[in-house]
Amino acid sequence: MRQITLHQLQVFEAAARHCSFTRAAEELFLTQPTISMQVKQLSQAIGMPLFEQVGKRLYLTEAGRELLDTCRDIFERLSLLDMTVANMKGLKQGQLRLAVITTAKYVVPRLLGPFCQRYPGIDVALKVTNHERVLERMATNADDLYIVSQPPENLDVQAYPFVENPLVVLAPRNHPLVHEKNIPLERIAEEPFIMREPGSGTRRVVQELFDRHGVSIKVKLEIGSNEAIKQAIAGGLGISVLSLHSLALEGTSGQLSILDVEHFPIARHWYVVYPTGKHLSIVARTFFDYLEQEGRQIAALQTFIGSEPAAQEPEPEPVPVP
Ligand code: PGA
C-alpha cells in the first residue's frame, strides 16, 4: 500500500465517481489507457480488484467502495490543510461547496456577492437542486454547507435559520381573484393548479396545508422549475404557490400578482445546515458566521415585496435538530 501515489488516488476517484474510465480521462485530460494503467497499478498495490464489469457497465467492488471512502477522507483532509495553512498566513482562501434548494437561488447569489468581494481568495461551487436532492447530498457529505427550508429529521444536524421564506399564492395579473380578500382554500381548489415536482419541499408543504384542511387541489401541470412555473402562470395555465423570493427581480409590478388567500403566506425559513460532527473548513465557518451575522439584512434588502409585505413571524430558535 505504501507504493500508492496521490495521483493514482485522484485518477481512481474520478473513475469511481463517473463509473467510467472514458469520462475520468476527459475530466483529467488524460488518455483512457493511462487511466486503465493507473487503476491497474492501484489495484495491484491493494491486492484486490477495484472495479468489475457487468455487461457494459462498470461497478465498484467492495474493496473499490472502501477505497473511494478513503480517497474522499484524504482529499477532504488535504483541502482542510490547505485552508488552515492559508489561514495561518492571514488569508482566507479555498473552496466553499454549497448545496441549496431551488427557492434559495434567488437570494444566495446576492449573499455571495459581498462575501466573495470581502474574501477574494474564496471560490464557490454552488449546487442548486430540490429539497430531496439536497438531503441526499448532505447524507453523503458532498458539500460544506446546505441551505434548506426544513432541516432533516433523520440526521443529526446543526441548523441556523437566517431569513424568512414565505410561500405565497401567485396568479396572472388579470385573474378575477386578484382583488378579493381572504379567499377560502376551497375557492383556490377550483382553479387549475401548477405543482412543483415530487421531491420538492414547496410541493410537500403545499400538499400538507391542503390535506390538513381536507381540500384537494386540481393539479393541471407538474413543473420542476420555479421560473417555468412563473411563465406558466403568466401564460394563463393556472395558479401556483411559490416562494415570495421568486419575485425578487420583477416584484409584483410584472405579470404576476399575489392572491390574498386564507392560511397564506405559509411562513417558512431558510436554514443553513451541516451535519453535527462535521469538521467545518475555515472557509465554511466564515460563510456560516457571515450568514448568521449579516445574511438576514442582505437578503431582506433585495426582496422586493411590492405593496403587500409578507407577514412577519417570530424568529425560531436556532436548533440542533435530532
Ligand atoms: P424546493 O425547496 O426547491 O425543494 O421546493 C423549497 C423549500 O423546501 O422550501
Short description:
With 322 residues, the chain is of the alpha/beta class. Helices cover 40% and strands 21% of the residues. A hairpin with a 2-residue loop joins strand 1 and strand 2.
Summarize the structure in words:
The chain has ten helices and 13 strands. By secondary structure, it is an alpha/beta fold. The strands form four sheets. Strands 4-3-5-12-6-13 form a six-stranded mixed β-sheet, with helices on both faces. The protein has a three-stranded antiparallel β-sheet with strand order 10-7-11. Helix 1 crosses helix 2 and helix 1 packs across helix 4 (62-88). The radius of gyration is 24 Å and the shape is elongated. Residues 304-315 have low confidence and may be disordered. Residues 101-103, 130-131, 149-150, 165, 196, 200-202, 268 line the site of 2-phosphoglycolic acid.
Features:
322 residues; alpha/beta; 6-stranded mixed β-sheet; 3-stranded antiparallel β-sheet; 40% helix; elongated; binds 2-phosphoglycolic acid
